Amino acid sequence: MTKHIIGLTGGIATGKTTVTNYLASTYNLPILDADIYAREAVSLGSPILSAIAQRYGEQILLPDGSLNRQKLGEVIFNRQDERNWIDDLIHPYVRDRILKVIAQSSSQTLVLVVPLLFEAGMTDLVTDIWVVRCSLEQQLQRLIQRNHLNREQAQARINSQLPIEEKVAHADIILDNSSTLEVLLKQVDTALKIMSGN
User: Any residues with CB less than 8 A from the CB of 133 and at least 6 apart, and which?
Assistant: First the structure.
C-alpha cells in the first residue's frame, strides 16, 4: 500500500499551525515540520551556521554563538539574492531529513508541513497538496498581531512568498480559513475522508 504524504502549505499566518495541530491531536498523524529541520540545519556548531557567520560576520550571531534569526531576517527579507543563497544551503538539508523520516515511518499517512513547498521545489515528496488560505487582509492582521510587525513589514513577508493564488492553483485540497475555526476543521475532516476514499 502506498503512503499518503500530505504536503501542507499556504501563506504565512494563514493557519497552517492550526491545521497541523488538529491533524496531530485528533487523527494522531505524524507531523514532519520543515521549519524544525531548517532550525536544526543552523543549530550551534553546524557547518551551515559556520558558512552563514562567514558570509555575514559575527553580528549575525547571538552572544551564545547561535543564529540571530531576526538579524538574518532583516538581511534576507529584502534581498532575493541573499535569500536564495541561504535557501541553497538549508533546503537540501531539510529535504534529506524529510526523506529519512518518511523511509523510517511505518505510518500510512504522514503530514509534511512545508511553508515553502513550491518555492523549495519539494512537491515531488508529497502525494497530496493541501493549501491553507485566507484573505490578504486577514493574513496581514494575523501576522501583525502574531509577530508584532508593522503593516509594511508584514506585507514584505507576505510578498517574499509565492502568491497564494499560485499555490491554490496547484492544490489538491484548498482549506479556506477566512471563517471560524469550526468551519476550518470541518474542511480538514472532509479532506481526509476524500483522501482515504470514504
Answer: 10, 11, 14, 164, 167, 168, 174, 175, 176, 177, 178
